[in-house]
Amino acid sequence: LDFKVEASSQQKARSKIQEAGIDVLIPEVFTEFVTTRLLGMEFVEGVKITEYASTHATEDEKKAVLSSLLNFYGYTMHGPIFNCDPHPGNLLVDRRTGKLCVLDWGQSRQLAQHERFAYAKIFMGALMEDGYLFVEGCRAIGFSFGDMEGPPDPTPAVMMGALRFVLRDSRPVAQSRADFEQLEQVFSKLSGETKAIQTGGENILKGPLMPLTKTVSLLFEVSSRLNVSLPLMHIFASHGYPMLLQELGYDVKIDPSQTSFKIELEQSTSGLSSAAGSLQTKLQSLLESLHEEGQILGAQLVVLDVASGKALVDVALGHSGWLKPLPVSHTTIFNILDISKLFLAASVLRLVEKGAISLGTALGGKAEETVTLEHALAHTAGLFQLVPRSVESFRDLCNLNHVTDTIAQEQPLLPPGTRQQYHYTIYGWLLASACRKAGSDIQSAFDDFMAAVASSMSLKAPLGEFAEPNKQMKSPSINDFAADMSEFEFFVDVTERGKRAEASMAEKADGAYWMSMFGRDQWFEPSALNGSLAKASILPGLQAFATARSTCEALRGMATGKALGSATLEESLRSRKPNAGGASASPPIMPKPFKQFEKADWGLGIQLVPLPG
Questions:
Q1: Long-range contacts of 282-291 (CB under 8 A, 24+ apart)
Q2: pTM, full prediction
């Protein structure tokens, strides 16, 4: 123990904190009273932060102290010096000024750039539920994970969920205790392979993540004792994210509100003159306000007149990614994700019109449970599990030929035609199989459709930069936490119910559906498609690449009969929702990524959305 070293660290911390404008007091060191065994510093008459709640401090004063504490740790975890000994005994509130005072700099050090980057990515990943970014950050500070492109592994999602749980908006002690009791009650229901959820969450407490965990635990304890609610995770990210962009060389301004982030607009452009009309003005204003609220990062919006093809609206604004904040222009290519299912359906229906295949063509299933092309297009094939049994890794998922070769052997969870439920992944592979049976392939059929509608769209990622799928960077609220807990409890209940010997066919199907996501959560996040493997792969119905203009042109081509005949289009707009009632006909509660499809209705590859009024 050398107090000269501690004095030097304390002086540096005091200087850097003052430079950063963080409203925290670090006592001044009197160097003439410093030796290896003696440390002389400014005397601060204070009250322990854990006892501050019992003083006569007002709500605003307590909130100011907690806000200072969060900003202090947010800055130091991404800044020049980090106090590695976070505990309440080192924190006082100055009785004279009401300022937070941080003591004991004996265990402090300067974080290397890769560590500061790592913490920023961990908090950003947790904020956006981006497992790939979270793992990238954890690996950079020495935490070991399995192959993210390999077999299913619940660890990343569970660790991220544990961090989100601990860093949820702070609550009073009694409510926090109730949260933990609820979590323990759900854990007690786990059995078999789902027990990995409990042990996986404990990994956040181990090894290289220990300093992070100790800091987070301190902050949650203090905020709960002070009975003050602040967005803990958001404040951490508000320090780390701008630092990350600055050190990556991007000169952009970040505006973090109390709920969401936005990169300030460098441009807001229109491909039309202001004289184009009020619709252009109104929609551009709407997009700008959504960006201002942090609801969107970047966007293109095009509206074409169906009859003439004239552009009525043409707007491009914002940025193409959180970590590659390039301005969005009219030519920026976007990954349109599962919107591409509509264009795949039209591609296959063109093969039907040409007589190369029929809606009754069998694509798989047993003789008594034949899956036809019509079932596939209508999302009634009963193959709504998220991955086929032949897919043992994300690498398999990205192997089009492997999955198409084996999809015919996949058994439906329910008899075809009995339930309409969104087939997120298997839909595209069934259509790829249909193209093979028609003597073609999915790429050729898709290209033929694009030629017919005079549009440009690709099933493979372009070689240059494009707008990658990104979630909103938004602080989870108490309601978000409650929804996550509710979904977790439902997952446990529905999978356990499906394991029972006396479970009905529908209960077994629902359990198998939810279980097909276990350990694969990160496969179905938008960030999974940003890796090099997915970019080099054809993932039919999961991704395609286009501008808003080319997407709009493809839709216009369908509406004007360039792609499909009027009889085919009319038949595609007829609902295929089964009329039979009962448990098998009703889809269960669906996971968060697919929530919007719980009550969806489809014709032949076209989702039928009732218009207002």
A1: 283/313, 283/315, 284/313, 284/315, 284/317, 287/315, 287/317, 288/317, 291/262, 291/265, 291/317, 291/318
A2: 0.89
